[in-house]
Design goal:
By secondary structure, the protein is α+β, with helices and mostly antiparallel strands. Helices cover 40% and strands 11% of the residues.
């Protein structure tokens, strides 16, 4: 019995399918509850009376202030033991210390700036008086200091020399005045460090709706950890919400700044209704961030697996068809428009937009992953056989295999680790048994299962291209519409 034992600390990412009874209520547990298929099966009462627990499973937000950079001088923080779909908090230094430091720096900067401003204005005044006296004694009284360029009649050589001297003095005065104005606009030391350390690069055609400083001040919520980094939901001070992926140097291959910038510049141009657009990116001194649009309705993983009881039925087949078509549209666009691949297809990388359209994220960045790093366990079941036991890079046919796994996940509600390897006919029987269908969806269900099976063929050469998969799905959709029309008596 785990309840009422005064346990403290955070919950581990339990994901044992054999765990049928679980109750940790009445303890002193803290932090975010990892969103795993196993923990999602239990209702909120299993986690009750732990006031410092938060997360999606108990419908309690984990809000905090979070940096996207680790300070080299800051003490190490405890690791967050969470799955790829977990949510939690990254904690900053206490706000009071930051505010006091900011106030003292502001006062000091204002005093110094004011002193420099006064002394510089005095120097300018003296310089103007001195130059004015020289001009009056050497130039005709009709010549204006402010408008020397309006003189059009020929001048003696000595007059032109004097005019050049006045112009030079005017340039010196304007330069000093500009420097004084810059003193008032000089950023505080912390801001100056940020500007020197790198800049936020917006993708071509994107409006600069936020700055790096706003991103650093953003309230951040940990959304999950993936194969190449950590993803946050960031709420900026202008109330704009974005998703920030912070690449983990220990999980990414060593690439030059030029290679990274060229690659992000390329995939940052990809625009499709079924892709989450990349808006901007940042890199400097080992830190790399990718900023996406925030999708408000969570991931496909949460829709299929999250907070569902053990006996809940899978999604209706028409929902499966709509989501499958959206995902196939996005993958086909990536393969044909950019000649790149997604490389990390899984249900947690399919997000649901404002209208519940399926949108792909984390696309085309698997190329940055270090092949020697520890593999993400959530991605293993989606990997094509030819890439599992070798260092062979993923291909477009690897994306097709992952799509087939995803389609079976949609149809059955079962995690890919629970999918059997069966012949197409036997696979249909398994899908029908899992869904507990009454036979009304027999034809459409059979066609979708056949698509999933052909995508999951062991040999990559035997798998269809993604555009062919999309065509098959659209034909199933058309046949379903025709069948519905006929059943209503309009055919």
């Amino acid at each position: 019995m785990l309840e009422w034992n005064r346990f403290n600390g955070s919950l581990p990412a339990l994901n044992q399918s054999s765990l049928m009874v679980f109750n940790v209520s009445g303890n002193n547990l803290t932090g975010a509850i990892p969103v795993t298929p196993t923990l999602s099966r239990f209702d909120t009462s299993a986690f009750g009376l732990n006031p410092n627990l938060c997360g999606e499973i108990i419908n309690k937000a984990c809000d905090s202030r979070s940096p996207f950079f680790d300070s080299p001088t800051s003490p190490p923080t405890a690791p967050l033991e969470q799955s790829g779909q977990s949510q939690g908090i990254v904690v900053l230094n206490p706000p009071s210390q930051r505010n006091n430091h900011k106030k003292s720096t502001l006062v000091l900067g204002f005093c110094i700036g004011f002193a420099v401003l006064v002394s510089s204005l005095f120097c300018i005044f003296v310089l103007i008086r001195r130059n004015g006296g020289e001009r009056i004694s050497k130039e005709p009284p009709t010549t204006s200091f402010d408008t020397p360029d309006i003189i059009t009649y020929p001048e003696p050589e000595s007059s032109r020399n004097n005019l050049t001297h006045v112009e030079e003095n005017k340039f010196q005065v304007e330069t000093k005045a500009n420097k004084i104005l810059q003193v008032e606009e000089t950023p505080l030391p912390s801001q100056r460090l940020i500007k020197k350390s790198g800049s936020l690069v917006f993708c071509a055609g994107e409006s600069e709706l936020y700055s790096l400083e706003q991103l650093m001040r953003a309230s951040a919520e940990l959304l999950g950890r993936g194969s190449v980094g950590t993803t946050y939901k960031a709420v900026l001070d202008n109330q704009l919400i974005v998703t920030v992926k912070r690449l983990d140097a220990s999980k990414t291959a060593i690439t030059s700044s030029e290679v990274f910038e060229q690659h992000l510049g390329s995939i940052g141009l990809l625009r499709h209704p079924n892709l989450v657009p990349i808006r901007s990116y940042f890199q400097d001194k080992g830190e790399r961030l990718i900023i996406y649009d925030y999708q408000p309705n969570g991931s496909l993983f949460n829709l299929v697996h999250g907070s569902r009881s053990v006996r809940a039925k899978p999604l209706h087949w028409t929902s499966c068809l709509k989501i499958a078509e959206d995902v196939a549209q996005g993958l086909t666009y990536i393969h044909q428009a950019s000649k790149l691949i997604h490389g990390n297809m899984k249900s947690s990388n399919v997000l649901l937009g404002a209208d519940f359209e399926a949108c792909l994220t984390d696309y085309c960045i698997s190329i940055l992953a270090d092949s020697s790093s520890i593999e993400d366990p959530d991605s293993t079941a989606y990997k094509a056989p030819e890439t599992r036991k070798s260092s062979r890079r993923s291909t477009a046919k690897s994306d097709v295999y992952a799509f087939g796994v995803l389609l079976l996940e949609l149809l059955t509600g079962k995690h890919p680790s629970q999918h059997p390897f069966l012949a197409p006919h036997d696979m249909l029987e398994w899908v029908r048994e899992v869904r507990e269908d009454d036979g009304k969806e027999e034809t459409q269900l059979g066609m979708l299962t056949e698509v999933a099976s052909v995508c999951r063929l062991t040999s990559p050469e035997q798998r269809p291209a993604m555009w062919q998969v999309l065509k098959m799905i659209q034909e199933i959709k058309e046949s379903a519409i025709a069948a519905d029309t006929a059943s209503l008596g309009y055919s």
